[in-house]
Write a structure and sequence with these properties.
heterodimer; A: alpha+beta; two-stranded antiparallel ribbon; elongated; B: alpha/beta; Rossmann fold; 12 helices
Chain lengths: 88, 270
């Protein structure tokens, strides 16, 4: 249920706190510093791009909380249909 | 008799652990249970002053550990409640004077004579914390609706699980209804959603708590106090009673979310 202030379209400090905590807790629990996430994202792109043509700018890699555990979710959009596997 | 050991902890200091320990212990004793509360904060003793028993101390926890007295001799009977006792911490020693196995041994002895042994844990995640949770059957985490307290609570919840003492239960202390309604304080439902543990209490932010600590008289024993009622409700929940979270706890409108969250959690655990 949205609060009154959310209905008025204002972002209040409690919701900022909650958003910040959500990210902090996921990193704390997985012992994965936010900086390592960036490196992981880059490496994932490199690996996938070796095989498929991906849209590098649209890649999303994030930790998603579910209860007290987290899932690493990657969304890697593919640019074109895979080429015929003959060139290699 | 086989008493239950309940450890009150938090990670962060200053969130209200000692006040909660005093009040939950007093509320349990007022319900007719035999209760002993133990201050595990060696070197920073405080449970004695919160309970108003500071002038009666002869022996302390370290004296028991080092064999200078029997557990019975270190127990101080409360002024108001026949069935409430305190084992104070040592003030002039440090946390290394006690080891987790000492706590287990002392609590095993106390379990014979008491229904509940309530341990006030020190802040932090070092020896004092390990001492406090070693004998625990149940761990209650106190937090405030504030980023650093919630973050530390999450860390402690993880450590309690790692020590096979979980799942920990949560008390959200110092909820300011006006601030929650303005959107400037995390609501209980937000804290629960982030921490994903079972809620056992919501305690309002109340200046009367300071007054009761000034006097050394637990607010849980004041029948008309809402905050006292919040602590009495926690005590009842810890005995296994189902006590609904009342709207007076400042979460009107959020209550539906809380019960929904708790149901979804039960669903996951099933």
């Amino acid at each position: 249920m949205p609060s009154l202030s959310e209905l008025l379209g204002r972002k209040r400090s409690a919701s900022t706190a909650k958003d910040r905590l959500r990210v902090v807790l996921i990193h704390d629990r997985s012992a994965l510093p936010p900086g390592v996430m960036d490196a992981l994202r880059q490496e994932l792109i490199e690996v996938v791009a070796r095989h498929i043509d991906v849209d590098r700018h649209a890649v999303r890699v994030e930790m998603v909380q579910e209860g007290r555990s987290a899932t690493l979710q990657a969304e890697i959009p593919i640019k074109a249909a895979p080429k015929h596997p003959s060139s290699e | 008799m086989t008493g239950r050991v309940i450890t009150i902890t938090s990670g962060k200091g200053g969130v209200g652990k000692t006040t909660a320990t005093a009040n939950i212990s007093a509320a349990l004793a007022a319900m007719g249970h035999k209760v002993v509360c133990m201050d595990a904060d060696i070197g920073l003793r405080n449970l004695d002053v919160v309970l108003g028993l500071e002038n009666r101390i002869v022996y302390d926890l370290v004296d028991v550990v080092e064999g200078r007295c029997k557990v019975r001799q270190a127990m101080i009977r409360d002024k108001r409640l026949e069935e409430l006792y305190l084992i104070p911490a040592a003030q002039t020693r440090d946390k290394n004077a006690v080891a987790p196995k000492d706590m287990v041994r002392i609590c095993d002895e106390l379990r014979q004579d008491f229904d509940y042994i309530v341990i006030d844990s020190p802040a932090g995640i070092e020896r004092g914390f390990k001492n406090a949770i070693a004998p625990a059957d149940e761990v209650v985490i106190i937090t405030n609706p504030e980023v650093s307290a919630v973050r530390d609570a999450d860390r402690i919840i993880g450590l309690v699980e790692a020590e096979q003492k979980g799942p920990a239960k949560l008390v959200v202390n110092r909820i300011n209804t006006d601030m929650v309604e303005r959107g400037d304080m995390l609501a209980v439902a937000d804290v629960l959603e982030l921490l994903a543990v079972e809620l056992v209490g919501i305690v309002p932010d109340d200046t009367a708590v300071l007054v009761s600590t000034n006097k050394g008289a637990p607010i849980a024993l004041e029948p008309k106090s809402k905050t006292g009622q919040a602590f009495r409700d926690i005590a009842r929940r810890l005995t296994g009673e189902e006590v609904p979270f009342s709207a007076s706890n400042g979460n009107n409108g959020f209550l539906g979310r809380i019960s929904k969250l708790m149901k979804s959690k039960e669903g996951r655990n099933a």
